[in-house]
């Protein structure tokens, strides 16, 4: 504590962001598309996806708010009076820059940034950090960042418990636990990240292998999901391409473990629970997915411990 003179340390909790209501969907996607509004057809389709999962009510934002509150509670337990959490979103208000500004307004001069995504990529976590850093430099806040926590023992434990539970649930449909195929997944990124030597793919495989081993799963593979709609190629195969191949191989039950995501949002509730589920039904394959981390105590501890560890490096860099 003495090193930081008893001053409160800011914690900027960053995530992708989600619209607050159906009315915000257009502005949200316009921001994602760098100022280009979605076409009326695309907007109708996007709104349809949100309607399908939330029926016009918007619990998605609450997930992130809950995670930030949960992290604040956990930090308060581990280091009373030392940390104040702020939220900064990539594509919705409060934006990353707003979160940094709020810290400055509150007199914060030192802060730790962490993203609600365990795996580092220059295109995801790296871009959050860049925006936060630029604003922090402008406002005279000294910041350090948690770049990844994909092998944190408590994160792995939380995921392992979920995979083991899921396999047990599907075992009857598969004809035994050993016949359940586990598909680990994450948000696809453009293929060009491979040329950049980006660690994203490798880190996802490391998490998946560690969880599979701990959950005693021998039959698993990695697949991608939720690729963007751009002209450039994205990492694949997509889960919708993987499922027919598995059905052809005689797989009867698939457990999806979207380890690249930490909460219930569109990519999980629509892309997996509706789209992939419908594809699996057509193929006569039983499909289930693990429960998301959301405010799981082990996930909150993972974040809190990662923040405290990062604080130790503040000022030494």
Automatic annotation (TrEMBL):
- Record has Cytoplasm as a keyword: yes
Would you say which domain of life the source belongs to? Bacteria
Q: Pathway, per Swiss-Prot/TrEMBL?
A: Porphyrin-containing compound metabolism; protoheme biosynthesis
Task: Please name the PROSITE patterns in this protein's record.
Answer: FERROCHELATASE
List keywords of the entry alphabetically.
Answer: Cytoplasm, Heme biosynthesis, Iron, Lyase, Metal-binding, Porphyrin biosynthesis
Species of origin: Paenibacillus endophyticus
Q: What is this protein called?
A: Coproporphyrin III ferrochelatase
The EC number(s) this enzyme carries: 4.99.1.9
According to the UniProt entry, its GO molecular function terms are: ferrochelatase activity; metal ion binding
């Amino acid at each position: 504590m003495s090193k930081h003179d008893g001053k409160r340390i800011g914690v900027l909790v960053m995530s992708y962001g989600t619209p607050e209501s159906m009315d915000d969907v257009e502005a949200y996607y316009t921001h994602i598309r760098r100022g280009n509004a979605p076409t009326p057809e695309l907007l109708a389709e996007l709104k349809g996806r949100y309607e399908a999962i939330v029926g016009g009510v918007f619990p998605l934002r609450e997930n992130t708010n809950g995670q930030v509150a949960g992290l604040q509670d956990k930090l308060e337990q581990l280091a009373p009076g030392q940390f104040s959490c702020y939220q900064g979103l990539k594509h919705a208000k409060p934006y990353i820059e707003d979160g940094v500004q709020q810290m400055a307004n509150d007199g914060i001069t030192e802060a730790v940034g962490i993203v609600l995504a365990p795996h580092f990529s220059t295109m995801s976590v790296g871009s959050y950090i860049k925006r936060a850093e630029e604003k922090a430099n402008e406002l005279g806040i000294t910041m350090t960042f948690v770049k990844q926590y994909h092998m944190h023992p408590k994160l792995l434990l939380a995921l392992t418990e979920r995979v083991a539970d899921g396999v047990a649930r599907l075992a009857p449909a598969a004809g035994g636990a050993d016949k359940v195929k586990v598909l680990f997944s994450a948000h696809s990124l453009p293929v060009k990240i491979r040329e950049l030597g980006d660690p994203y793919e490798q880190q996802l495989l490391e998490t998946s292998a560690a969880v599979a081993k701990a959950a005693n799963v021998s039959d698993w593979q990695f697949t991608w999901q939720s690729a963007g709609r751009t002209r450039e190629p994205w990492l694949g195969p997509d889960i919708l391409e993987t499922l027919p191949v598995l059905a052809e191989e005689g797989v009867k039950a698939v457990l999806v473990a979207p380890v690249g995501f930490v909460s219930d949002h569109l990519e999980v509730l629509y892309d997996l629970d509706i789209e992939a589920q419908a594809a699996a039904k057509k193929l006569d394959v039983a499909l289930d997915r693990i429960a998301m981390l959301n405010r799981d105590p082990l996930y909150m501890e993972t974040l809190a411990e990662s923040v405290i560890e990062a604080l130790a490096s503040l000022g030494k860099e």
